[in-house]
Amino acid sequence: MSIQEKINELVENFSYFDNWEDKYEYIIDLGKKIPKLDEKYKKNEFKIQGCTSNLWLVPIIDGKKIFFNGGSDSVIIQGLFAIIAKIYSGEQAKDILDNKPDFLTTINLKEHLGPSRSNGLNSLIKKIQSTANSVISS
């Protein structure tokens, strides 16, 4: 499935919910479905700065593809990570960079997050893009 197909699926899934309470429940459920991050990765090397909750991102580079493992001690942030990982994990660096996270605006997510969660989400996206840039540069 291409990044655009994954984005289309996410946008469609969000359209099924009438209110943000239900959308938040969906986000939390997505976070519960991803594997728990091994404790050995919960260290500063993988910690996303700019997020008030603890959020770790572990990129795994396999050839031209990048996979993202991660986790948070906040259920909402864990869910936001799950959304971003669902879209970008397993994709080539160029495709990650070519597909900006405009879908977050499409689903009105950013306007429903507080400043600290929004900062954390932006920091996560910047780290993913930075990782993709590093893969292209190497």
Describe the structure.
This protein is α+β, with helices and mostly antiparallel strands and 138 residues long. It has a single domain (3-137), classed as Sufe protein. Chain: A. The chain contains 6 helices and 3 strands. The protein has helices at residues 3-15, 20-33, 75-88, 93-98, 103-106, 115-137, and strands spanning 55-62, 65-72, 91-92. It has a 3-stranded antiparallel beta sheet. α2 (20-33) crosses α3 and α3 runs parallel beside α6 (115-137). The relative contact order is 0.18. The mean pLDDT is 92.
Number of domains: 1
CATH class: Alpha Beta
Q: What's the average pLDDT?
A: 92
Write down the oligomeric state: single chain
CATH topology: Sufe protein. Chain: A
Estimated radius of gyration: 14 Å
Q: Roughly how much helix do the residues carry, as a percent range?
A: 40-55%
The main β sheet shows up as: 3 strands, antiparallel
- Arrangement of strands in the largest sheet: 1-2-3
Q: Segments where pLDDT lies below 50 for 5+ residues?
A: none
Structural class estimated from helices and strands: alpha+beta
H/E element string?
Answer: HHEEHEHHH
Task: Describe this structure in a few short sentences.
The protein is α+β, with helices and mostly antiparallel strands.
